[in-house]
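Input chain follows. Return structure tokens only.
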Amino acid sequence: MYNLIKKILFRFEPETIHHQVMKGLQILHGLPLGKKLIRSFCQPATGLERQLWGLTFKNPVGLAAGFDKDARYTDALACLGFGFVEIGTVTPVAQPGNDQPRLFRLPADKALINRMGFNNGGAVAAAKRLHKRSSDIIIGGNIGKNKITPNEDAISDYEKCFHALFDVVDYFVVNVSSPNTPNLRALQEKEPLKQLLHHLQTLNNLKIKSKPILLKIAPDLTDSQLDDIIEIVRETKLAGLVATNTTISRENLATPDSEIAAIGAGGLSGLPVRERATEVIRYIHKSSGGSIPIIAVGGIFTAEDAQEKLDAGASLVQIYTGFIYEGPTIVKKICKGLK
């Protein structure tokens, strides 16, 4: 059924149809029998709870950051069966992001290329929406810096986001690995990253009850850089990692080179990232002796894909591109397979 619907949806511009479909889901969710109808089709099997960081995840399948940037749809997404939803990336001040078009489908590869550029309404606006939510789904807050903020002032941006979201999210993810904000990935270098994370952990420790802070890393890091990440996680006592973000690689794609060239810059997600994301997870898990909790993201479409990530050392998984290609019952199908 969804394959037929997908053919229709894929005739429309990706970003436009994304917002239209989500608004439709939100309207359905608000109808008297809407929640019950959605749950009847999408709710996954029970018995897959996970305990991590003192939090209870109803199941290990979450929604990755980038899908619900402004925390507009968390209640409706909870009805689709997700074990957790990561909102953002949010920045201190609202920004429009990069020029459109900035989201592209690669159906031959079951992939997407995006160069959204942290388009969002700002951390304070997202926090206000989260204050009003009715579901108890676990929420992650993915935070970044504004495009116009120079790297030497980036710490201030992350601090503002941290304070704005602290009371309304269950964990934080520090995003320094998006390829779509100029010079952002330079913050992954050892010294600036240590400085940023030490500062956030200092703020975190001043709270009555601290929140887990994770770091989202790129799949394009070398083994040496991953070793540095492991050292930084230990030194700053981070709660864990999200592995991985989108890739700047364009290797081994079925989509014609001319089409890829016409699309231009952006982060690639979906099936082509699956193998590399698993390699990164396996390397971190093995090199750290399994001491670093990992949320896996990258090319997860099926229960087998999710199990591959869990077997590699992940504690939880997230989907994004797979959600678009497989449809609203994907969590139910993955959980059924895992069980």
